[in-house]
Write a structure and sequence with these properties.
Order of helices and strands: EEEEHHHHHHEEEHHHHEEEHHEE
Largest sheet: 8 strands, antiparallel
InterPro entries: Asparaginase_II (IPR010349)
Pfam family, one: Asparaginase_II
Structural class: alpha+beta
Number of strands: 12
Low-confidence stretches: 321-341
Helix content: 25-40%
Shape: globular
CATH class: Alpha Beta
Organism: Pseudonocardia bannensis
Number of domains: 1
CATH architecture: 3-Layer(aba) Sandwich
Protein name: Asparaginase
Length: 341
């Protein structure tokens, strides 16, 4: 992967390039052709939480009966705000399950205010609070719906995980070599490899699916309930709210994928795993694909600060014009860098 990576963003402070992020990017037009690229779109990656919409499609196909905000929560790396946690509890209760049935890695809320409240209450790390609890609750509910064992749902050989792997193969269109790698994600669930271009194709197929299909149900839930997919102030939530028809999903280690309703799509991997350049590069890539919305200027501006004031910015490389938003302390973009599995 590293041999083919190229600069995707420069960090400029006081007119001097201070740091450079390398990576890969695949941008598809509505026909599925790669028309915007940085590095190698065929590079094999672990998509991390950017794969969650694909996993949700597999769960619906297996019998999960979920729509609306709780389906968005099943696709989420949520911030752990109160309503997120209550939603996970509702999802579990609807399947006759409880928090004790979750097997995801214990954690605390990603949202800063929620995390402070959690610690102030003396609460230890918990599976419910960890950002992947919605996915794990949905996995358990799928097992109940399909009459599969719930105790072993994280086993790569479990019928649920085999169904997810088959769905990844179908929606990405990747060959066997690209899908040969299986590991454990940060949350404890199996994680399957794919190519960067394959991830973009998968999001495009979900975004363009016909009404009533599992793919369309996932896309509709994400579009209608972006807060449930991320949380207050999160880049992924802001982009979905601001770009008509967009679906998107962030992931750990510099992963991000998004697709427009006509099939234009982008997938990004930052080589060093940093979250800092992600909003800038994604906004520039969406613009390069022809998207146009004020939120792209807002999200795509990440200021470099000196003594709390903008003294530079993070700029995308090779993806068209930089943001035209004038530097301003009250327009500084907050980058949520906490990892999502």
């Amino acid at each position: 992967m590293d041999e083919q990576a190229v600069p995707i963003a420069r960090v400029v402070r006081g007119g001097v390039v201070e740091s450079v992020h390398l990576g890969h990017l695949a941008g598809l037009d509505a026909s599925g052709t790669v028309t915007v690229r940085r590095g190698d779109p065929a590079t094999v990656i672990f998509p991390r939480s950017s794969l969650k919409p694909v996993q949700a499609v597999a769960m619906l196909r297996a019998g999960l009966d979920l729509d609306g905000e709780l389906l968005a929560l099943a696709c989420a790396s949520h911030s752990g705000e109160d309503a997120h946690l209550a939603g996970v509890a509702r999802l579990l209760a609807g399947a006759g399950l409880a928090e004790r049935d979750l097997q995801n890695t214990p954690g605390r809320p990603l949202d800063e205010a929620a995390a402070v409240s959690w610690r102030a209450a003396g609460r230890p790390a918990a599976s419910l609070a960890q950002n992947c609890s919605g996915k794990h609750a949905a996995m358990l509910a799928t097992c109940v719906a399909a009459a599969w064992d719930t105790a072993t749902y994280r086993d790569p050989g479990h019928p649920l995980q085999r169904a997810i792997r088959d769905t990844v193969a179908e929606l990405t269109g990747d060959g066997a070599d690209a899908r040969a790698h299986v590991t454990v994600d940060g949350c404890g669930a199996p994680l399957f490899s794919c190519t960067l271009g394959g991830l973009a194709r998968a999001l495009a197929r979900i975004a363009t699916a016909e009404g009533g299909t599992p793919e369309h149900r996932v896309a509709a839930a994400i579009r209608a309930h972006p807060w449930w997919l991320g949380g207050t102030g999160r880049t992924v939530t802001r982009l979905i709210e601001g770009v008509p028809g967009l679906i998107a999903k962030d992931g750990a280690e510099g992963m991000f994928a998004a697709a427009l309703p006509d099939g234009r799509a982008v997938a990004l991997k930052v080589l060093d795993g940093a979250a800092r350049p992600v909003p800038v590069v994604v906004a520039a890539a969406l613009r390069a694909l022809g998207a146009d919305a004020p939120v792209l200027d807002e999200v795509g501006r990440v200021d470099v600060l000196g003594h709390g004031e903008p003294v530079g910015s993070v700029a995308a490389v090779g993806l068209g014009r930089p943001s035209q938003v004038a530097p301003s302390a009250n327009r500084t973009c907050t980058v949520h860098g906490a990892p999502a599995p």
